[in-house]
Structure formats: structure tokens, C-alpha cells
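Collaborator request log, item 7. Partner lab (contact: R.S.) asked for a structural prediction of Hep/Hag repeat protein to inform their binding assays.
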Amino acid sequence: MNKIFKVIWSKSKQCYVVVSEMAKNTTGKKKIVVAGILASLAVSTPLQDVSAVNGPGARGGWSQAQSGTAFNATEGLVVGPSMPGAFDQTTRAKGNVATVAIGAHSEAYGSSSVAMGGGTAYGDKAGTAGNVTDQGGAVALGWVTAKGNRAVALGGINTTSATGDNSFATSGGVANGDNASALNGSQATGDNSFAAAGGVANGTTNIAIGKSANAGGTAGKTGAVAIGDSATASGAATVAVGKAAQADLDNDNAFGNSVHANAGGATAVGYIVNTTGNQAFGGGSNTNVSGPAAVGIGYMSQVDGNRAVGIGSELSGTKNTASGDYSVAIGAAARGTAASATAIGKQANASKDNALAIGTGATASESSATAIGNGAVANKTNTVALGNGTNATGASAIAIGDAVTATSTAAISIGSNGTKATGYGATAIGRNAKVTAEKSVALGFDLNVAHSGSTLVGYNSNILANQATGIGSTINIDSTAQYATGIGYQVDVTGKNAVAIGSSDDSGTHTAAKAKDAIAIGTATVTTAEGATAIGKNAAASKADAIAFGTSAAASESNAVAIGKNTTASGLDSIAIGGETTATDAAKATGSKSIAVGAKSAASGQSAIALGDTAVASGLNGVALGVETTSSLDSAVAIGNKVTGSGKYSVALGYSTSASAEGALALGDSTSASGEHGLALGTLAAASNTNTIAAGHSSVASGLAATAIGLSAKAQSAGTIALGRQAVIDNKSASSMALGDSASVTNATYATALGAGAKANNYHAVALGADSETADKVSTASMTIAGNSYNFAGGTADSTISVGSGTVKRTITNVAAGRVSATSTDAINGSQLYAATQAIESNATAITSVSNAASTALSTANSAVTKADAAVSTANSTAAGYNAAKAAISSSAAAAEAAATRAATSESNAATSASNAATSASNAATSASNAATSESNAADSAALASSKAAAAATSASNAATSESNAATSASNAATSAS
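Returned to partner:
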């Protein structure tokens, strides 16, 4: 609200007075703020004092003032609720505190309302005098009406009206709506609307400023803005700014003089701009934009296509035009008149779908044609013309450069000064390049291709054959050279399918391929025969299918191959590879179909191969690969350095290695296989006998079919195997084996030493385990036990097995139980001996009984002997008596010995005891015999002695019988125990 003046209570004058808003009310009374007092109050004649009849009056009281001369009023100021005026021209003030009515016909209703000069102020929207609430604050100054809380109406006669809370109207304005404002004869209808300078805002939040400006139209759309004389914003959220600007549909924008946006979301900017496309934009002068989402900018620009863009101006009566959907026209009189057509540049014209014309006067007159450059023309489908004065008139043709022409379908012309591609699918690239044949290519300067399917790249060259290719300078491909290729400088091709790549030499000799399927690559390289190939400076291949590869290499016979500087292959099917190499054929030597590769290499055998410096292969199918390698017999192979394969079918690989016998194989450094079918592997290994194998550093296999494997292993006898470091078998130990580090067999055939340091030095012997050593065989055929001889199965030993030595002892563990029988030669393990021991121990008691019986028998025998001695000593035995006594004694001794022997059969220990008893008896008999001998002369006592001897013999016999019975008992006991 304007706060220019206010009404306060004057303490000195005891009445309400109008003062500046800066004045103070010292009484502490509530201020009544007046929103905008008429300007005439500020310049009127001085006010006369107005005296109050009843003073300020209390709430609910009545006050009446006398007329004031300044207002020429017939009714005084009345302040208080429900107080009618006292005179004919009624002035009323009805409301609570601070309601003011000043002037005839002034009416103020509602608290803090002010009515001056015949105005009517209602403190609410109802606009009635009755039932005024405690709301108010309306201000009416002049013959006006203000209805609503804090509504303000200033000036005018009858027509000024502010209706609505916080509404505002001045000088004939009509504001109808909360927060609506109408200034100076304008009309604002709708909440938050604003109108000024004669405008009409019809709708919520609308703004109209200017004579006859209209925001919201008759439909009262919201959010419209119209600014300018006769500006019209008829749609919701529209903006029209400028004289006669029109924004008709929702979200339209019009800025400028006589511009028109009529599509919904359209924008028109400038002078006499007409935008009727939805979401379109128009700017400039006399521009028309009718396409949806289109853009038109400039003078007399016409944009009709959907999302089209036209930027430019009219020229010579031709408008800038973008009439196709998605078309673009940029430039004076530029025209994009088909879908997705683009014309950029003065008078550029793209008249068919997807056409592109860029440049002054550029023309793309068929679909997908492209013309870029001043005066460029692309007038067939998919053609491209790029450059000044270019002309692409063939379908899908491309012309790029200055004054370039592509006149046939799919032709490409790139260059200047008359470059032309006039054949179907032809390509001419370069200054003055010309291609008059279909599907041909010319790339370079001053080129000419006159036959189809050919390609020429370079300078000053010609192709006169179909489907030929030339690259370089002064290339000449003759009409007979169909499918030929010439690349380089001063190259000639006269053969079909031929290839020549290179240049002439200082003498002027051209590189040339002069026959069908010939290939010449290099400086002054020449091929003159069908299928010949020459690669290298001055290389020459002069016979069919010959190959010369290298500087001055020469292949002068069919299928010959020469590879290397100055290399010559002059034989049929021969191959020479390496500097100054010669491979001869069967006509001149023995090397047909041979191959020699390397300096001074020689392959003189048929189908031989020599590869390497000074390599020599002189045998049939021989192979020598490496420096100074030699293969001298049929099918021998030598590979390495200074290697020799001098036996048929031999193979030598390595350094200074030799395989000198048939079928021998040597592999390593200084290795030698000199025995037939021998094999030597490793440095200094030597296999010197038939079917031998030596593998390992310094290993030697010199015995027939011997094998030595390991460092310094030696197998020097036939059929031997030495396996391990320094395992050795001497030359007197055929069919032996030494397996292990330092294992050895010496002077022992069929021997085996198994383990580190094991030694087998006996025939058929086996040394088993580290440091084991054999000894001579030992045979045990039988054994005598208690006088009985027992023969053993396997009693004759052929050799020995040692699991140790004099200082190394080993147990044999994990031995299975052997068979126990009279013929078994199986080993017996500990568990079997344990079982026998248990049986013996269980018979201990029986054995003791046998022993006691034997002792008794011996005692009886001894007694008899004693008696005999006594008889002998007292008798003078005769010879007959002596003999009888001797016989009796012998009989007794024999009986005793027999009894003891039988007891020993049942149990060895009992038998031994019995044997001892018999021995004692024999000794007794011997003593008796001696005694008899001593007393032989005592013949007279012989009879008596004989008698006594007989008695003694009888006693001895009885004792023997007892002893026999005891032995029988012992045997039975042993049988029971078993």
C-alpha cells in the first residue's frame, strides 16, 4: 500500500486530522494507515480547523463533527460503530476502532477502513453495511469502491473499483480478485492479476499492460502476460510482448511488433513474425513458422516442416525456405524442401529427401545426394560433389576437388584440373587423372586407365590391360598383361598375371616381368619364363618355374632355386642358398633335386641338402646342416658345427660330433657313435661297438650291445649295463650290471652290483646295497649231527648274494616264511625259528628224564668196568680168556653205545648224553683191554677172569637194556611233545 498520508488523533485540536506518514501520534492511539490519498489533498487550500463535538469518543460511543470549509462538506466526520449521518447527504462510518468516513456519500465499513470523497470502503468482500466484522483496512479515495480486507481504490468517478482482499485499483481501474491490481482505466479480473495502461487481465495471475492489451482472453486462461498496445495473450502461460503481438495457445510466446504465435508452445520474435507450429520458434521480420517444433529466423524466412530449421533471408524474390520435415535451410535464399534435406549457403538448394547442399549455389537435387562447395552439383541418388565447380552426375558418384567430374554410377573423382571418372564404378584421384573404363582406379598425376577393373597409382603411367594394377612412375602395363601388377619406377609388365616391382638401374635396364605368371621384384630384375620368380637386384630367372632370390642370383633351369648373392642354381630342380653357392644337377654331377644353402656349401648327392657355411652333403638324400658339417653317405644326417655323419642312415647332432657307422646316432659336444646302430648322447660320450648306448658326460659303451648311462659311466664288456655316475664294468665281465654311483663289476661275468659303491667281483654274484661286496661261492651239501650225516637240498652253490661287506652288516627284514621240507631251498624267517625253539623248550622235562636214565646206565657200566678191572688185575688170563673178556666188554660197550644213539634220535640233547655214556663205556672197555694186554701172561688166571668178565658183560648188558628202555621212553616223550 502507498503510505503517503495517514490519519491520527490531534491532542491539541482534540480531533482526527490528516498528516504526513512521518508524523507521530503521541497519544498512543492506534494509527489508521491510508493507502494512497488523492494528489489533490496534497495541493488543496489550507484546511480549516474541525472541532469535535464529543471529543475522541470511546469504543461504542458517538462523535459528530462540524463541517469543514476545505472539503465543502455538508456533513461532518463521524467515528464510531453503527452511527448514521445526521444530515441529508449521508456520511457513514461503521466499524470498530479507527474507521474514517470523510465527505458526502462517503461510507466506511469495517475496522480501520477509510472512505474519502464520496467513496465506499467495505472491510470485507460482501460489500454490505450490515454485520461488518472486525476485519477491514479498506481504503476508498474518490468516487470509488473498495471491497475487501485491505482493498484500495483511488481516483476516478464511479468506474474505479477494487474488489477482493488486498486488491488495488486507480483512476478508473477495475480490480476484481484477491491481490488483483488495475491501474488507470485497466481491468484486472482474477486473483493475483495485474492490469495497467488500459490493459485487460482476465484470469488468475494474468498481467496486461498497454492499450487494449489482453491477457487471458475471453476464456480467462491463467498465467498469461500481454505487454504492449493491442498485445494479446489468450492462452494459459502465454507471453505477448510488443504492439499487436499475439500469443494464442497455451505456452505460446510472442515478442515484437505484429508477431503472432499460434500453436501451443510456439515462440515468435521480431516484426510481423507468424509462428503457428506447436513448440516452434520464429524470429526476425516477415517470418512464417508453421511446422511443429520448427525454428525460423531471419527476413522472409518460411519454415513449414516438422522440426525444420530456417535461418536466412529472401534474395531476388526467393525466400529462405525449410519446408520438409527435419529440413535445414541456412543462408540467403537457401532452400531445404524435402524431408531431412539440408541447404547451407547462399542460394544452396537441397530438394530431395536426405539431400545435403553446402556452399554458394550448391545443388543436391536427388535423395541422399551431397553437394559441398561453390557451384557444386549432385543430381543423382547418393552422389557426393565436394569442391568448387564439382559435378557428380552419376548415381552414388563422388566428385571432390576443383572442377572435378564423376559422371557414371558409383564413380569417384578426386583432384583438380579436369580429373575425370567416366566409367561405371571408376575412381580417379589426382590432378588430371582419367579413368574411362568401368571399375578401374587411377591415383596420382597424369594417369590414364583405359581398361576395366584396373588400378593405377603414381605418375605418368599407363594401363592398357583389363584388371591390372600399377603403382609408381612410368609404369607400363601392356594390353597382353591382363591381371598384371607393376609397382615402382620404369617398370614393364607384358605377361598375363605377371608381377613386376622395382626400378631401373643406372644402365637403364627396367624391372620387367615378361611372361605369364612371372614375378620380378628388385632393381633391374628380370623374369623371362612362365612362372619364374626373381627377387633382388639384377636377379634373373630364365626358365619355367625357376626362382632366383638375392643380388645377382641366377636360376637358369626349370624348377631351380637360387637364394643368395651371386648364387647360381643351374640344375633341374636344384636349390642353392647362400653366397657364392652352387647346386648342380644329375646332368653335371650327382645332385639332382639337391639343396645347398650357405657360403661354399655343396650338395652333390641326389636330393641332398647342405645348409651352412662349407656344409657338404655328398650322399643320396644326405643332410648337412651347420658350419663345416659333412654328410658323406646315403641318408646320413649331420646337424651342428663341425659335425660329421659318415655312416649310412647315421645321425650326428651337436658340436664336433661324429656318427661314423651305419645307423649310428651321436648327440652332444665331441660325441662319437662309431658302432653300427650305436647311440651316444652327451659331451665326450662314446658308443664304439654295435648296438651300444652311451649317455652322459664322458660315458663309454665299448662292449657289444653294452649300455653306459651317467657321468663317466663305462660298460666295456658285451651285454653289460653301467648305470650311474662312474659306474664301471670292465672288459672281462660280460652280461653284468652295475647300477649306482661308483658301482662296479670286475672280472665277473653275469654279476650284478646294485647300489652306490657296490662291488660284484665274482661269477654270477650279486652285491645288493650301498658298499656291499661279494665273495667266492660256498657250497654246503651235508652236515653230521651226533654222528649222523644229513644231506641238504641245494647243497651246491653257483654264486653268492651279499648285502654288506666285512665292515657293513645288514639284517634282512620282511622275509616271508619259507617252506620247511627235506627238499626246500627257501629261506627261514625268525618266526619259524621261534616256533622250533618253543617246541624244544616244551620237551625240557622229557629230555631231563632221558639224561637221568643215561646217567644211571653209565654208573652201572662204570661199576661193571671196575669189577672187570679187578678181575683182570687178579687173573692171569689166557689168550682165549682174554679174547672172551674182550668180546664181552666190546659187546657191552656196543650195546651201551646203541642205546645212547637211539636216545639221541628222539632228542638231540638226550642223544648227546647217551653218546657221552657210550663213550665212557668204550673207554672202560679200552682200559680193560689194556689191562688184559698187560696181564696177558697171566694165563693161569684166564678162566677166572673170563668168568668174571662174563658176569661183568652180563651186568653191562643189563645196564644197556635199562638205558635203551630209558631212551625209548625219552623218544616217546619227544614224540608226544612234537
